[in-house]
Amino acid sequence: MYAFAIATLIVGFIAGFLFQRTGQCFMGAYRDLYLFKDTHLLKGVAGFFIGALVGYIILMLIADPFTVINFPWALFNGLAAIPGSIVKAKDLISVLIVGIVGGFGIGFFSVAMGGCPMRNHVMAAEGNLSSVAYVIGFWVGIPIIYLIINALGI
Amino acid sequence: MSQKIRVKTWQAGLIVGILSALAQSVYNLMPKSVEGVAAYKLAPVAYGFCMFCHVRDIVNIFMRNVFSFMTPAPISAVIPALTIVGLLLGAYFSAISTKSFNVRKTVNPVLAFIYGLLVASFAAILGACPIRIVLRAAYIDVIAFVGIAAMIVGAIVASELLLKRAGGG
């Protein structure tokens, strides 16, 4: 039962260590490509995508008890989104709106801040006080948005 | 910076990507079912690494009685994901070992706090952070590609505004 906590702790530690070394940012990748035509960080995102794909395919081939369920997702569930959004409506139009609004908002405010949430957690650990403020806002913001969405009833 | 361990960005991405995918399988190792639901069905798929979801699960497990309105992944009723704790420890350890730890400010902290609030809100709406959206895309979720495209558009608009402000002022 504690396997998951320990596994994610180790994954997080390795991720923090490696991404601190490379200065990886999942939003800076797109920003640098657009502003400077620089693909340095984008290679990290591409590597992450390929690594995850390889990992899932390995798990699919190993099968029980390690298998991943419903992989590849689109083959089993069509256009339905993988669960995770706090918006309860699940029809296609709502899911598309959620994807576009959520994605646009994250992209806009992450670039305004200068990094994705992961990069800001790493910079907070490096001693950047602005990122510490960001991290506090991030943690405090989660219950607040739940309250707002619940009040709106969507 | 110490040059002892040199990692290229694609190598770091590849390693963490594989590990994040493999972390998914650990759910399957939990032997018991919870309230009649098999343990491996408790966790959403593509859940190995997420800045937003795992923070929410940690907040939830410690503050469950206060924030009863939150709907975390059912897994966090059993055990929280400690990715964020590991990430902070790993980054701190790396920063110390490369002597790149220094206290500084880059953005006005009040503004940074508000940005944190806003990014968390939009991440909650999307149901993923910029990392998990890539994991979801690797899980072949069509909506995730829409999310990434919207994210890139948002990044471009913000970049243009920053350029304009830098040029004008």
Quick take:
Chain A is 73% helix and 0% strand. With 154 residues, chain A is an all-alpha fold. At the A-B interface, helix 1, helix 2, helix 3, helix 4 and helix 5 of A face helix 1, helix 2, helix 3, helix 4 and helix 5 of B.
Q: Can you describe what's shown?
A:
The complex is a heterodimer of chains A (154) and B (169). Chain A has one domain. In chain A, 73% of the residues lie in helices and 0% in strands. The longest helix of chain A has 24 residues, at 129-152. Chain A is mostly helical and 154 residues long. Chain B is mainly α. Chain B contains six helices and no strands. In chain B, α5 (130-138) packs antiparallel against α6 (142-168). The two termini of chain B are 34 Å apart.
List keywords for this structure.
heterodimer; A: 154 residues; mainly alpha; 73% helix; globular; B: 169 residues; 6 helices
**Hey, which two chains have the biggest interface?**
A-B, 120 and 130 residues
Overall, the morphology of chain B is globular
Distance between the termini of chain A: 34 Å
> What is the total domain count of chain B?
1
Q: Which spans of chain B of ≥5 residues are poorly predicted at pLDDT below 50?
A: none
Mean pLDDT over all positions of chain B: 83
Question: Distance between the terminal alpha carbons of chain B, to the nearest Å?
Answer: 34 Å
Percent helix of chain A, as a range, is over 70%
Helix segment count of chain A? 7
Q: What order do the helices and strands of chain B follow?
A: HHHHHH
Structural class given helices, strands, pairing of chain A? mainly alpha
Percent of residues of chain B in beta strands?
under 5%
What's the β-strand tally of chain B? 0
Helix amount of chain B: 55-70%
Computed over alpha carbons, the radius of gyration of chain A is: 18 Å
